[in-house]
Write a structure and sequence with these properties.
The chain is of the alpha+beta class. It has nine helices and 13 strands. The longest helix has 16 residues. The two termini are 15 Å apart.
């Protein structure tokens, strides 16, 4: 359930060697069962309920242990969001472009943070597990965690413990059966951690990075050097402005695809110089040719898992 978007399509009774799993936006909760050669993942997504938290948190993913104990392997693609994932009774290992989740003989809670990845990330579950992921918007987690930059150095952080009571609280939340009560308890906890942080200037800079302005123009507009711009981006978002923009364009292309007829039009719609530039950037983030990628998607969908 790590790093997907806001709706999971339902797939069953298939024999594909590779499955693209696509999502779209929806305000209502849903559940999905992913099946590949009898492999099952019971996943639920919910949009943020609390009005205040909606400014900073996009939603939550819940994975539950299913009937199957077979492993699940998939690729997930770069995102500018920040993911805090808590797993129950499992061992989690994060390495270079890979996350491996295996059952633990001990009862335990593990929380990890993933912020920066510029290549497809392979996620391996030896078997489905109980897991909750919170999807923070850019600069969203900064509103809750002091000294967040200490956790952003490597782009991910194992045993993420910004609060002394985080894992204890998550263990209690796992014990709640009713999903609405789980969400209410989860949101109440994070509301209690919300801080009054001044980020207006940085939010304006992020908005400019998402525009057509050059990095040099943005630095000049805000009267800072490009070096300082890189420094504050790494400190607060865990990536450089160039990395952020590259991923933003990629995500925009996935959304824009449903509105255009060909890759040339998509290239310009998504702020790329030309089709050649678009293909080069797209392949650098996915290792997949965009023509192959988009031929295998429903144009009304947004984002993909690639099951292996």
């Amino acid at each position: 359930m790590r790093y997907i978007s806001d709706r999971l399509a339902r797939f069953s009774n298939y024999s594909y060697s590779i499955l693209l799993y696509f999502c779209s936006l929806n305000e209502t909760p849903f559940s999905a069962l992913v099946i590949r050669k009898q492999k099952k993942m019971n996943i639920q997504h919910y949009k943020t309920r609390n009005v205040v938290l909606r400014k900073y948190i996009d939603g939550y993913y819940f994975m539950a242990k299913g009937e199957s104990e077979l492993p699940v392997h998939y690729l997930t693609f770069p995102y500018n969001l920040c993911f805090v994932t808590t797993t129950q009774n499992s061992n989690v290992k994060i390495g270079e472009e890979k996350i491996i989740v295996t059952p633990s003989k001990k009862k335990k809670i593990v929380t990890d943070l993933v912020v920066r990845f510029n290549k497809p990330f392979k996620v391996v579950y030896q078997e489905p597990t109980n897991e909750i992921t919170i999807k923070f918007k850019p600069l969203g987690l900064n509103r809750f965690v002091a000294n967040l930059s200490d956790y952003l150095i490597n782009g991910f952080y194992m045993d993420f413990q910004p609060f002394d009571d985080l894992n204890t609280e998550m263990q209690s939340i796992f014990g709640i059966v009713n999903k609405e009560e789980q969400i209410e308890r989860l949101e109440s906890y994070w509301l209690s951690k919300l801080k009054n942080v001044e980020l207006d200037r940085l939010e304006n800079i992020v908005a400019d990075i998402e525009s057509e302005r050059t990095i040099a123009e943005i630095a000049k507009k805000h009267q800072i050097s490009r070096q300082y711009l890189n420094k504050i981006f790494l400190k607060n978002l865990g990536k450089t402005p160039s990395e952020y923009r590259k991923v933003h364009k990629f995500r925009r292309a996935l959304l824009d695809f449903q509105k255009v007829n060909n890759l040339t039009e998509l290239s310009y719609e998504s702020l790329f110089y030309d089709q050649s530039h678009f293909i080069k950037e797209f392949k650098s983030l996915t290792n997949i040719n965009p023509s192959f990628f988009f031929k295998n998607i429903d144009s009304n969908k947004e984002i993909a898992w690639l099951f292996l």
